[in-house]
Amino acid sequence: MTGIILSIENLSVSVGSRIAIKDLSLQIPSNTILYLLGPNGAGKTTLLRAIIGYPGYNTVSGVIQFEGEDVTDKPMEYRVSKGLALAHQIPPKLVGVRVADLLSTLCKKSGCSVSDVAKDMEIEHLLYREFGKGFSGGELKRVEIATLLAQRPKLALVDEPDTGVDVDSIEIIARGLKRLVEISPHKSIVIVTHTAFIARYIEPDATCILLGGSIVRCGDPELLYKVMRSGFKGLA
Amino acid sequence: MGLKAWLDEVRERALKALTKPSPYGVDVDVTPFLSAGEVRSGGFLDSARAEKVGVNLKANALYIQVDQAYFSYLSRIPGVEVLRIEDLIDQKPDEAYEYLWRLVDPAADKYTALAALRGRGGYFIKVKRGVKVEEPIMACLYMSYGGLQAPHNIVVIEEGAEATVYTGCTIAPEVLGLHVGISEFYVGKSAKLRFIMVHSWNRVAHVRPRTVVSVDHGGEYISYYVNMARVKTLQTYPIVHLADDAKAFLASILLGLGKADIDVGSSVYIHGNSSGAELVSRALARDEAKIFMRALIVGEGVSRGHIDCRGLMLSDKASIQTVPELIAKNPNVMLTHEASIGRLAEDEINYLVSKGFSKEDAVSALIRGFASIDVKGLPDRVRSYIESIEKVISEKAL
After folding, report:
1. Model confidence over B314-355: pLDDT tens digits?
2. Gap from A106 CA to chain B (nearest CA, Å)
3. Is A127 near chain B, with CB under 8 Å?
4. Number of independent structural domains in chain B
5. Residue B395 pLDDT grade (very low, low, confident, very high; cuts 50, 70, 90)
6. Within 13 Å of residue B100, how many CA atoms lie on the same side as its CB?
7. What residues in B contact A91, CB-CB < 8 Å?
8. CA distance A115 to A146
9. In CA terms, which of B139, B217, B284, B315 is 20 to 30 Å from B129?
10. At the topology level of CATH, where does A4-230 sit?
11. What is the pLDDT of residue B252?
12. What domain range is B326 assigned to?
């Protein structure tokens, strides 16, 4: 498939009484690994949550279209059913819910194999553990990416997959993200990061910079490497 | 003193305690149950209800009691003995003398007194020295027409033996009954008893089990208790005594529905050194249910203990109160507790919805997770039944 998968026009989002995303426009085409970079507090997580319709992230104005359909007023349940998925930066602990239980429910819907997903993300040893309890940073991220692999989404939105993660886990996570691109019918993914460490393992096709709730610049992969060298100074 | 004299003394002490209330729970007038006439016969076992509480009626070691009149029992497992208590008294008076009313005080309260005076039946299960039984030993206590059911249960796990005893207790719909089960469990040296009790009562039933467990040197007692249906009042506070190198793990799942008044606790007295206890309880309160969750660990020897009480509020009119208590009588005791009560976290629900769950399925999964306690070492059949109980609880709690 080719064309624009996700189109955001003049989006403003409030969280509580604060406007966290201001008049933001962004288009995500197919066959694209898009990195969305920004310092802490730039609005990256807010943008991803607004795209997926997470409760508490309220669209004040603007339009979100996914595969040509206006989903701006649709609830999260609907957007997820259409193929959007979010890897959370910090997934909550789920008391008494084992990783295997969650993956099994997701795989029943998508037709995947829990053991294959667990093997891909090297989380076999966590399958019968309570979700999130006592996991290391890397384990938590690997399990989170595993949930996306089990969902088999059309477009994955991945929030900070490289924060608090050791080098070995980053390689596994990058392998999982590449797999998500492979199984996406659009061959695209959105990766949010403020360190861009993960870019050493999964190369970008495009980069956008988010500052103060607005996209200030989009460009080719060189933009990401420039940020990695020099930071966000001078990009506003 | 012989058995007859001992039982006479038990009855004498019981008579003096008939008006003594329990310190916990709703006070139930036991007079109507005391003055009831002779035991009625004609009650029949509702097999479907027995199976609903997980009892395998084809088990190789089985005890069935209906009301106070019908008894059936057998053991085809080598090294496992199953008897009705009256038959124990007739056939093995020495053992009856050794085990009956030795852990539970007949004068503890009016319910133990009532059981001592009016009780019938109950099982005597003995697993002989060194015998390790994988298949669960099953018991079903069923009330078909109400009134009083007061069985006296004794389990003896001899030195080095190991067994799982599964007891399902249930009642016919809408019959008013008082169930007072007296349980005295003896876990021998380096022996292990896994005890599972599943209760499914009705909205007019009163339930007052009284349980005391003695765990000898190196022994282990693992208990899993669940109340999975409506009940009018339920109060129980099992006591476990641990010797040296002994362990206890007690898990309770309490579902409060309707106007249930539930007061359930667990207590462990660690007398020995190098021993440990863990008490885990989960309460789910719906409708107008009131649930007290009590837990007590007393550390006398060098020991460790932990209490984990969590309550889940599923209604604005329900209430849950946790009362965890730790008592150290030795400076080398390490005792801890954690307790929490709240609603399901919105963030957890939203997280699951973001993974493709409907909101209802997300709530159900989280309730089921809440009610799930990992009890290690259970036989597969018991484990799979417990998983089905967790599912039933999550459905009933919604």
Report:
1. 999 999 999 999 999 999 999 999 999 999 999 999 999 999
2. 7
3. no
4. 2
5. confident
6. 32
7. 351
8. 11
9. B139
10. Rossmann fold (3.40.50)
11. 96
12. 3-344
